Structures are given as C-alpha cells and as structure tokens.
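User: I've been trying to design a sequence by hand for this structure and keep getting stuck. Would you show me what you'd pick, starting by listing the structure so we're on the same page?

Assistant: Good idea, let's start from the same input. This is the structure you sent:
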C-alpha cells in the first residue's frame, strides 16, 4: 500500500488582480456600452458621482488631502477580508446591453391575433406557435417537435393537424410570409396574398412550386425547356421572385434590436489641409469624481479624539471599500482612454495615406503585431482595442477591423494589401458575362496575369469574404 506523505512545493503563478480584470473588460467595451457601464457603476457605488464640465476640482479625486484613511484604520484592527473589494465578480457575468427597444415581431403578431375571433384552445395554440417564431419570421421547429414539447411541458395532447390549423391563422397575419417553415413556403405565401396575379407572377408561382430545386441550383435552361417558355418570360418571372422578401420579419421594424445596433464612433479623425487630428469621442460618458460628502462622514465618525469609536468602525470600513472601488474604477477609465488613444494614433500614423485619401487601394498591409510593435503593447491588448471599435472620418464611419489586412507579394516583390486583391476580384466579377460567369480558376489566371501570385483556394477565400457566390449561382439568363 503506498504511503501518504506531505511535502511543500514552491511555485510561481501569475494571476490577474481585480483591477487588471476590470481594466481588460473596460477596454473591450465600445463607447455606447461604456456609457451604460459607467452609469451602472454610479448607481452601485454611492461614492462615485458625475463631475460637472466647468467644475474646478482642486482636490485630488474630490477627496481632501488632509483626510487619510490610514490614520483611522490600522491593518491590525481590521481583518484583511474586510478591506478586500471584489471588483470583478459582477464583471465576470456576461452582460448584454440593450441599446434601444421596440415592439418585436412576436408582439406584433400577438397584437393582431387578439383581434381574431378564435376559440380559447385555438388561440392558445396560435400564441404558443408565435412564441417559437424567429425574429426573421420563420418557424424553424417542425410541428411534431412542437406537439411533443407541449405534451411534455403542459401535459396536453395536441395533434399535428391542430397545430397546422393554428399555423394557417398565423400565416394569414401581417407581414406576408410570416410563419413559413422554409424559404420556398415563405415566397409562395407572399405570392398567394396578392389579390390578382400577373402572367409573370403566375409563372413565378409555378417555378417555386414545381421547379424550386432546379431554380436554386441555377439550372435555368432546364426550367425553360420543361415549361416551354421564352427567356424573356423566364426573366420576368425571376424578377417577380426577386421582389419578394426572403425574411418577412424584416418587413416589420419598430425601434431596433441587438442585431442592428446604432453605431457610435469611438474616435473622431479630422483632416484639415493635410493634417490629421485624432480625438476620443466621449459621447455621453460622464467625467467621474469621488463625492466629498463621504470625507465628512469620516470626520464625524472619528470625532474630536481623532479615532473612530467601536460602533463606527463598520461604517468607516464600508466607506473605505467604496472609495477604493471608486478610485480603481476612475483609474481604469483613464487608463482605457490612454490605451485607446495610443493605439489609434499608431494606426493613423501607419495608415496616413489611406486616412488622407479614403481609397482602400492606399491601405498598407497591417496586422495586430505591427501595431503592437509600434505602441509597445501586447498583441492581446491591441486586439481588445480594435474589437467593436469605430472611427469617424471625412469619408464615413470605419470599423477598425477593416484597417487590418494580409500582405500579398507581386512579381516585382512589392507588398500589397489583400484589399487590393479583393477590389480587382469585385471589378472582374462585376464586368463578367453573367451567362458564363468566371470560375475561381479563371479569376486566379486573371490575377496571375496582373502580377499577383495567388492560389485558387485563396481566390475562393477572398470571394467568400466579399459575399460573392460561386460561378454557378451567379449565372443569369
């Protein structure tokens, strides 16, 4: 039997302090979410308050210099756990900041349903189905699974036929196409809601009903031959299909949602006579200070003797914890501003020609390590600064991630940005014959002729990044 013994092991571990964790999380936040975070901290910490812009604060952090907490609280008198401020436990929980609200598509459907004269049971079925509809207006779950969920959760046996009946009610609501289970059904629902169909719309309905697979695979010649129609008739039908919405939920928008947030630029870059001026966009983020009234609390608690009474020790400890938390938060905000400005200034200096002109062809190849070398910061810090940040320029609001690109080498040995390759790809595809679209192999040969040594798989990668489908799906009649 193995013996059990004890031994001491000396190890060196690296752990992030609560202040470092707080700084990292603040660094990742864009301006709009930082405003929410600052307001939340003000609500949770009574010591923090907003500083008026015109206020002249001669005292450090709003705290009189003659008041020293160390004079009133000794380490021997207060246990260590009482002076520990847990600044990171709340931040460890993932928060999703609601930027602005509006009535959702589900609320809109429920409102319409309330005007329908339905039996209570049918109304409950319809309401349950509406709860399963996505924001884009589709019902992704199959009816059998929904029937099983109702039986398991509520103990009611609802047949698929009853669910189908309730779904028909939902599909009769606005916007047209809502409640569809796939894109084919969605498009057909929109056509069926038309009062009268033109010849092109009747043909479009037949194509979606009988030849949907061939249509999605762009086998246009086969459809034309099977239907015995002309190319002009087919083209008119395709135009009618293209007018339909593949996401009916987008037809109803009130307010907004997290998928389409309102962008507030984190930096503002001004250009005047060839000079670039960078500044941080404070937006509605208030300046913070420590409330001086809490210094009076300390003075009153200490009394004339200069030492706190036993019953006031807890109050003083609470004030000390809140003041420390406030100082750490203010320091983290200032450090965030310095890091952001330092990083963005390095990017502006590196991409000066681009910011003066606004042409993507002027973008130099740049990766995170290039900026890290210029600023002396870690690559992970640069990544956090760049993430979800925007800069307002004279030619629009630009995402910082768009400024980073890979380097490609030409036959002459010159390094160019991958944006230049993408621009050439876009131009070639825009000018191609849509009856015979260029394949990735053909695009590779065109680029090679222009001096850009690039593989076919790289062409496919850039094409996908541009959101351009393969040649077969770009084919038109």
């Amino acid at each position: 039997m193995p013996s059990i013994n004890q031994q001491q092991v000396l190890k060196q571990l690296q752990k992030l302090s609560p202040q470092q964790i707080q700084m990292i999380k603040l660094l990742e936040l864009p301006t709009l979410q930082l405003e929410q975070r600052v307001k939340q901290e003000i609500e949770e910490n009574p010591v923090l308050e907003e500083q008026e812009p015109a206020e002249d604060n001669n005292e450090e952090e709003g705290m009189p210099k003659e008041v020293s907490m160390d004079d009133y609280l000794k380490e021997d008198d207060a246990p260590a756990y009482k002076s520990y401020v847990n600044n990171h436990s709340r931040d460890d929980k993932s928060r999703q900041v609601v930027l602005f609200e509006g009535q959702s598509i589900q609320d809109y459907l429920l409102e319409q349903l309330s005007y329908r004269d339905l039996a209570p049971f049918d109304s409950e079925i319809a309401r349950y189905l509406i709860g399963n509809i996505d924001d884009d207006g589709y019902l992704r779950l199959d009816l059998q699974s929904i029937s099983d969920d109702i039986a398991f959760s509520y103990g009611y046996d609802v047949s698929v036929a009853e669910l189908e009946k309730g779904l028909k009610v939902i599909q009769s609501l606005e916007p047209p196409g809502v409640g569809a289970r796939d894109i084919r059904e969605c498009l057909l629902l929109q056509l069926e809601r038309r009062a009268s169909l033109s010849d092109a719309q009747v043909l479009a309905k037949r194509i979606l009903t009988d030849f949907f697979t061939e249509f999605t695979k762009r086998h246009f010649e086969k459809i034309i031959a099977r239907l015995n129609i002309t190319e002009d008739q087919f083209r008119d039908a395709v135009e009618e299909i293209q007018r339909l919405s593949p996401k009916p939920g987008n037809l109803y928008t009130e307010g907004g949602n997290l998928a389409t947030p309102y962008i507030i630029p984190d930096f503002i870059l001004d250009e005047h006579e060839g000079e670039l001026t960078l500044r941080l966009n404070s937006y509605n983020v208030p300046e913070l200070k420590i409330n001086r009234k809490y210094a009076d609390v300390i003075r009153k608690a200490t009394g004339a003797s200069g030492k706190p009474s036993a019953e006031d020790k807890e109050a003083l400890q609470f004030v000390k914890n809140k003041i420390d938390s406030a100082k750490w938060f203010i320091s983290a905000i200032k450090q965030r501003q310095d890091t952001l400005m330092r990083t963005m200034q390095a990017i502006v200096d590196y991409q000066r020609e681009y910011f003066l002109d606004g042409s993507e062809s002027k973008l130099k190849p740049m990766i995170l390590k290039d900026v890290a070398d210029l600023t002396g910061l870690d690559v992970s810090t640069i990544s956090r600064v760049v993430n979800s940040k925007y800069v307002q320029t004279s030619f629009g609001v630009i995402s910082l991630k768009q400024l980073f690109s890979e380097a490609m080498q030409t036959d002459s040995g010159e390094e160019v940005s991958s944006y230049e390759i993408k621009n050439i790809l876009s131009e070639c595809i825009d000018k191609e014959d849509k009856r015979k679209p260029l394949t990735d192999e053909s695009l590779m040969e065109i680029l090679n002729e222009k001096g850009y040594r690039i593989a076919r798989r790289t062409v496919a990668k850039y094409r996908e990044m541009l959101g351009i489908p393969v040649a077969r799906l770009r084919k038109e009649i």
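That's my pick for every position. To get oriented when you compare it with your attempt: DSSP finds 20 helices and eight strands in the chain. Residues 313-350 form the longest helix (38 residues).
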